[in-house]
Design goal:
159 residues, globular, mainly alpha
Length: 159
């Protein structure tokens, strides 16, 4: 059960997080369709390996676009889709755990491949930031205490 209420503050916060998700996932889709992440590897990798990586870039870009579309419709009427938003928040918590795990694993040390020289050195920070946004989304949707603390912190102690 999700705790999206009739309170305008709660609806604004959830709406803002969903709109942020729409913009982020659209940017993610454009980024992956452009293949910027693997463009530096084109000269290092065999052609077949590069096109294989391109396939996965485009699959993620397509999934990102689908997620952006779903989030757009969810933010239009959060009360109507509160059960789906609650389910999405649980998936967000799970995915935050996956992202946090991958941010702590040193892939470059486990797989000694020349192609990993194109690895983004700040990728683990990016993964942790994405995980943090997902945890905040989960907390705002699922826990009234988290919403109360958030309001207390952002209001500066004023009532």
């Amino acid at each position: 059960m999700t705790l999206i209420t009739n309170r305008p503050t709660n609806q604004r916060v959830v709406g803002w997080l969903l709109r942020f998700g729409v913009v982020f996932m659209l940017a993610e889709s454009v980024f992956h369709f452009s293949a910027l992440r693997i463009s530096g590897a084109r000269q290092l990798w065999p052609t077949s390996a590069w096109y294989y990586a391109l396939l996965f870039n485009w699959l993620w870009a397509s999934a990102s676009l689908l997620i952006a579309i779903v989030l757009y419709y969810l933010q239009r009427d959060a009360r109507r889709y509160r059960d789906l938003i609650g389910a999405v928040s649980w998936f967000g918590l799970f995915h935050a755990g996956v992202l946090t795990y991958f941010s702590t694993v040193s892939i470059e040390q486990k797989l000694i491949l020349p192609s990993l020289y194109v690895w983004n050195p700040y990728y683990s920070v990016q993964l942790r930031l994405e995980a943090a946004v997902l945890v905040v989304f989960f907390a705002v949707v699922q826990f009234p205490l988290a919403k109360w603390v958030w309001r207390a912190v952002t209001s500066g102690g004023e009532r």
